[in-house]
From TrEMBL:
Active site location: Y136 (proton donor/acceptor), K164 (schiff-base intermediate with substrate)
Protein name: 4-hydroxy-tetrahydrodipicolinate synthase
Listed pathway(s): Amino-acid biosynthesis; L-lysine biosynthesis via DAP pathway; (S)-tetrahydrodipicolinate from L-aspartate: step 3/4
Function: Catalyzes the condensation of (S)-aspartate-beta-semialdehyde [(S)-ASA] and pyruvate to 4-hydroxy-tetrahydrodipicolinate (HTPA).
Phylogenetic lineage: Bacteria, Bacillati, Bacillota, Erysipelotrichia, Erysipelotrichales
Site (Part of a proton relay during catalysis): T46, Y110
UniProt-listed PROSITE patterns: DHDPS_2
Keywords attached to this entry: Amino-acid biosynthesis, Cytoplasm, Diaminopimelate biosynthesis, Lyase, Lysine biosynthesis, Schiff base
Enzyme class: lyase
SMART domains per record: DHDPS (SM01130)
Length: 297
């Protein structure tokens, strides 16, 4: 029961210079992504700065995303992670009630847990809420890695259907793919710089930050790979690579917001402790964007 195949976008959250959420700017960006051909929308992920917004704001943003995606065929994935299992359950229940297609649940951060604790955390949510779940492994953010054995154990649950792998470790992805090959379980890349090798190895797609800028190009890349057109995919993957790397030379989503401000989509404002990037970083990214856009993808 694959949730989506191809590209999903990890939506940014536009803000005003006083830190208030720009809901109209958010709706504009969601519509850009739908028009750009993404297969799925991830709302309330890391790129959406959920660490500094309220749960009420998260619910409102999900409602807006669902309304815009209604009737389009584009899937809606709701970020439902927390380092408190009860809070994650509250988010998962709301997503189920409102009709989200899936939830993305990050590993607990700061207080963290053991591998045994991870199994209990995820199983508690999956048992209580009948909605497809995507595990989210991003140890660079959380300080906690989901071991391959833990992934395999969790993949046996009927509601735990996939994992977003942001380890940027192809060897890890290969081992997970090999050991879950006989299970109804999919893998999505969480790193735009490894889409080609990740999907060539068997991943079903990417949950992408770069899609916020170039949804058509990232979707085209994923579909070429899914169809086995690796030679045709290679030039596009190589062209996107400098941008995907430069989007992470500062803390995400600082660079994507700078890029979207350049494109006239929204402001580059963030909530503290995140701050705007340096002029040097902007120049590097903007130069790469200009070079990419000259290619006509």
């Amino acid at each position: 029961m694959t949730i989506f195949e191809g590209s999903a976008v990890a939506l940014v959250l536009p803000m005003f210079d006083n830190g208030d959420i720009d809901f109209e700017g958010f709706k504009k960006q969601v519509q850009r992504m739908i028009d750009g051909g993404v297969q799925a929308l991830l709302v309330n992920g890391t790129t959406g700065e959920t660490a500094t917004i309220t749960i009420e704001d998260e619910f409102k943003l999900l409602d807006l995303t669902l309304e815009l995606a209604k009737g389009t065929g584009v899937k809606v994935i709701c970020g439902a992670g927390s380092n408190d299992t009860q809070t994650a359950l509250k988010k998962a229940r709301y997503a189920k009630e409102k009709g989200a297609d899936a939830i993305l649940v990050v590993t607990p951060y700061y207080n963290k847990t053991s591998q045994r604790g991870l199994i209990q955390h995820y199983t508690t949510i999956a048992d209580a809420v009948d909605i497809p779940m995507i595990l989210y492994n991003v140890p660079g953010r959380t300080g906690l890695n989901i071991s391959v054995d833990t992934v395999v154990e969790l993949a046996k649950h009927k509601n735990i259907q996939a994992m977003k792998d942001a380890t940027d470790n192809i060897a890890y992805a290969m081992e997970v793919l090999a050991k879950t090959a006989d299970l109804d379980f999919d893998l999505y890349s969480g790193c735009d710089d490894n889409i080609l090798p990740f999907m060539a190895a068997g991943g079903k797609g990417v949950i992408s930050v770069t899609s916020n800028l170039y949804p058509e190009a990232v979707e085209k890349l994923t579909q070429l790979i899914l169809k086995g057109n690796i030679k045709e995919a290679q030039p596009l993957a190589y062209a996107l690579d400098p941008i995907s790397r430069l989007l992470f030379i500062d803390v995400n989503p600082i660079m994507p917001k700078a890029a979207l401000a350049k494109m006239g989509v929204c402001g580059e404002y963030l909530r503290l402790p995140l701050i705007t990037t340096t002029d040097e970083n902007k120049k590097a990214l903007f130069d790469a964007m200009d070079e990419f856009e000259k290619l006509g993808y």
